[in-house]
Amino acid sequence: MGDLINAVILGIIEGLTEFLPVSSSGHMILANKLLGYRPDNEMIISFEIVIQLAAILAIALVYRKRIASLLGLSQETETIKGFSLNKQSRRKLNLVHIALGIVPALGMAYLLKDIIKGEGFNQTPVLLSLVAGGIYMLVAEWLVRSGRIRTVSDTMDDITYKQALIIGLLQCLSLWPGYSRSGSTIAGGMLVGTSYKAAADFSFLMAIPIMTVATGYELLENYKLIKGDNLPFFIVGFIVSFITAWLVIVLFLKNIQRIRLKHFAIYRFVLAALFWLFIMR
After folding, report:
1. What is the torsion angle, in degrees rounded to the nearest 10, for the CA atoms of residue 141, residue 248, residue 15 and residue 110?
2. Each residue's pLDDT tens digit, 11-27
3. How far apart are CA 234 and CA 216, in angstroms?
4. How many structural domains comprise the chain?
5. Angle at Cα 55 formed by Cα 226 and Cα 248, nearest 5°?
6. For residues 260 and 189, what is the distance between their CA atoms, to the nearest angstrom?
7. Cα–Cα distance, 29 to 275 (Å, whole number)
8. pLDDT of residue 198
9. Which member of 27, 83, 222, 237 lies 3.0 to 4.6 Å from 46 by CB, making a disulfide possible if both were Cys?
10. Is 128 helix (H, G, I), strand (E, B) or coil?
């Protein structure tokens, strides 16, 4: 029963933190420490892959119509002043934007995979990245709100190829464990002139292919560790992570104008303090 309760706790943490700019890796390291799991526990490593897969499915569900449109599987139409228009013909965002956004991080992750797995998840780099990511988000939001950076792309469909590429390059910051993929891309989008909402939408949409590739790669290496005796642990974590992630994404997008990046930055600083107290001391 204890392991099932831990599965619920970890599933909730993954679902809550994977797509918010607060660093899911930092949370998972802290949670595993408090729950008594060693960082080299192979079952926990596999479990984290499974609950991350659940979070990917949740975000794919939220953006299912947009994904279908990008893949040419949707023929949605809308009527404007009596004329029926195909939505796809009016959209600028396409698969090229997504590719520009994810290829830099995927390429860098492949080149640095040994360093990331070896040194990246050590305590000091994660603590520093929590703080550095918070400062990065504060600066990005301040530059936009002070008028030093002008918003030129109000919606995700207004994002240009150049903006998508720069966001993709800035996403490479998230390879530093604790920095946050969504934090690097949402703040990065604002730095290149996209609105907060457009940056969040693009960040979440990019998460689907990039996380699918990363999680799929890890799953191929660790799937043998998912055995019959620990299957309930994995199933419970998967279900809880999926439901939690779906709720978080829907609520975040619904209330996005009320929640600023500075709130997440302050939270990261608090998390860094807890990380230092419980992990590093």
Report:
1. -40
2. 999 999 999 999 998 89
3. 16
4. 1
5. 145
6. 14
7. 9
8. 95
9. 222
10. helix
- Quote the pTM value: 0.88
Whether residue 231 contacts residue 201, with contact meaning beta carbons closer than 8 Å, is answered with: no
Place of tokens 């903006």: 163
Three-state SS annotation for 34-60 = HHCCCCCCHHHHHHHHHHHHHHHHHHH
Distances (CA, A) of 269 to 16, 17, 89, 178, 179: 17, 15, 44, 12, 12
Give the whole-angstrom CA distance, residue 237 versus residue 120: 25
Q: Are 241 and 56 in contact (CB under 8 A)?
A: no
The pLDDT of residue 85 is above 50:
no
How much is the mean pLDDT over the chain? Answer: 87
Residue-range definition of the domain harbouring residue 58: 2-280
Percentage of the chain surpassing pLDDT 90? 60
End-to-end CA distance of the chain: 30
Cβ distance 263 to 22 under 8 Å? Answer: no
CA–CA gap between residue 55 and residue 216 (Å, rounded): 13
Residue indicated by tokens 């949605």: 76
